[in-house]
Design a protein that fits this description.
Layout: H1 10-25, H2 31-57, H3 62-83, H4 85-93, H5 101-114, H6 120-127, H7 132-155
Length: 159
């Protein structure tokens, strides 16, 4: 390949040439465009959530409206994943589709659908939290640690 300096060793030279070939043919990404799309689609998802919150707030107290909004958005994320629509949104929007709560629903439902053919125990049951599991483990663990620290600071203010 032009412009690539490779060692004399044949194995190293072939590896170097291969890397140059890969680099020359890899698709170019437009980070600015991807950031704009992620921002717009993520914002649109949040706007839908806000619309549900406004709707529910006119019928229920604010606490209940917030819970209903979360439930609705999780349902929509799971439902659209089941229909195969959320994957298309994710391909188009990138990170904009995984940040809202709908992305969390997608991360649970998607592996469950993928591994359904392996059965409910070894497929759905064991693979459902494949993506979301680490997030839950570290999120819950961190919240417990922060709660314990908060408790210790409140009980023993001199610490």
């Amino acid at each position: 390949m032009r412009g690539v300096l490779c060692k004399v060793n044949i194995k190293d030279k072939k590896a170097c040439e291969y890397q140059a070939l890969v680099k020359a043919n890899e698709p170019k990404t437009n980070s600015f465009k991807n950031c704009i799309l992620a921002f717009l689609v993520g914002g649109a998802i949040c706007d839908v959530g806000q619309a549900f919150l406004n709707l529910y707030s006119s019928f229920f107290p604010n606490d209940e409206a917030q819970v209903l909004t979360s439930i609705t958005m999780i349902f929509l994320g799971a439902f659209l994943t089941g229909l195969g629509v959320y994957d298309k949104i994710g391909t188009f929007a990138g990170a904009g589709s995984i940040v809202p709560i709908t992305g969390f629903a997608n991360s649970i439902v998607s592996p469950a659908i993928e591994y359904k053919k392996e059965g409910f125990v070894f497929g759905v049951g064991s693979k459902m939290f494949l993506i979301a599991g680490p997030v839950l483990v570290y999120g819950i663990s961190t919240s417990i640690l922060v709660g314990l620290l908060y408790y210790l600071v409140k009980v023993f203010p001199g610490i």
